[in-house]
Amino acid sequence: MPVPAFVDIERPPLHLAEVLVVRLPLLAPFVTGFGVTDSRHTVLVHVVGADGVEGWGEGPALDHPYYLPETVGSTFLCIRDFALPLALRATVHDPVSIHEAMRPIRGNTFARAAVEAAFWSLESGRRGLSMRAMFGGGRAAVPVGESLGIAESIDHTLAEVAQRLDDGYRRIKLKIEPGWDVDVVRAVRTFTGDDVMITVDANASYTTDQADQLVALDEFGLACIEQPLGWDQLTEHAELQKRITTPICLDESLRSLDDVRRALYLDACRNVNLKPARVGGIVTSLEIADLCEQRGIPLWCGGMMESGIGRASNLALCSLDAFTDPADMSPARLLFEDDVVDPTYDVEPDGTIAVPTSPGLGFEVCMDRVESRTVQRAAVDVASCP
Ligand code: OSB
Ligand code: MG
User: With contact defined as beta carbons under 8 Å apart, do 235 and 243 qualify?
Assistant: First the structure.
């Protein structure tokens, strides 16, 4: 059974259930196939029990609907108007019951994931058991990779690659788009030699007419090419996989357990990027991890430039053996002027991050930072959700 069954514990009623949008300025702009970002709005869910135990979850949708249909704004509204009210109406507030209570919601995976995550960290705190232990993870530390945005010049990218390899990172992921692909990949491969794991992520920026450019990447020994084609082009990815030897990895296209099943059935991907928030939460993530492990599919945890709150549950999830490849999980401190957790984690010289063993989120949330960065906030009336 991949998903834990929950025995009964004392779960006092909630005092507070709220959803917040925080604005976190980035230290440097992040450039991808869908534009430039210089600050990160993200959505947080905060629950507090009458016992004083708190839970935090994050729904790291983007500002715009260019990655997936959900945005920060739609995620905030879905949580306020549907996901949190449905969750609070669940008869038992354990994470699996919360997941079930939100089942009527179609899509809106970031909203559902944020609410579920808040109840996972709440449950973890109440049980005095780390999230890693609740997920059944065996690993004490997880290997990490870095996702490098599209840069001003190839030299700039090479400098970033050198820095990350020096820091011990286990994998380099390069964002690509038509016009920023073969030349940069060749330069990086020449620089690193054959032993470094390199992947590329196109964020759906190629059309089927541009497949020749993707065939040209086969000679560089990439571990995978992530989401080359459209977010809903499963069949087209299967066609492309027949033409290239590099394994296709899907990101945007996989938003549920059934999506992963379908993609594997069609041979539309041979590598899976699992972002818990993109698939609707931890329960579904545990099921997908189990499926990939059974099928021997390389699996890794992607990042969404989350704050330390979202990174925390991702990190705990990566302690499962099913995660075979390094995670996109560089410390949020390197992304943001101020993260909302402090202290956060570090990447050790061997390119791994230690998984927290303490109950709850595993990291201290700085409430004054959350307050000063909050741009939108709504409390859901707990009393009206019996
Ligand atoms: O496609 O993996 C992606 C960030 C935002 C949206 C989509 C993606 C990303 C990243 C960031 O690649 C990786 C990270 O969080 O470190
Ligand atoms: Mg991606």
Answer: no
Is 251 near ligand 1, meaning CB less than 6 Å away? yes
Indicate if ligand 1 lies below 6 Å from the C-beta of 203: yes
* Domain range annotation of the chain: 14-128+365-384, 133-354
Which tokens is 226 given?
């992530």
pLDDT of residue 111: 99
Residue 13 Cα to ligand 1 midpoint, Å, equals 36
DSSP string, 142-195: EEEEEEEPP-SSHHHHHHHHHHHHHTT-SEEEEE-BTTBSHHHHHHHHHHH-TT
- Extract the residue ranges of the chain whose pLDDT is less than 70: 1-2, 33, 385-386
| 201 Cα nearest atom in ligand 1 | 1
Out of 3.30.390.10, 1.10.287.610, 3.10.25.10, 3.10.180.10, the CATH code matching 14-128+365-384 is: 3.30.390.10
Which CATH code, of 3.20.20.120, 3.40.630.30, 3.30.980.10, 3.40.50.720, is assigned to 133-354?
3.20.20.120
Q: How far is CA 51 from the centre of its chain?
A: 30
Query: pTM of this prediction?
Result: 0.97
DSSP 8-state symbol, 5: P
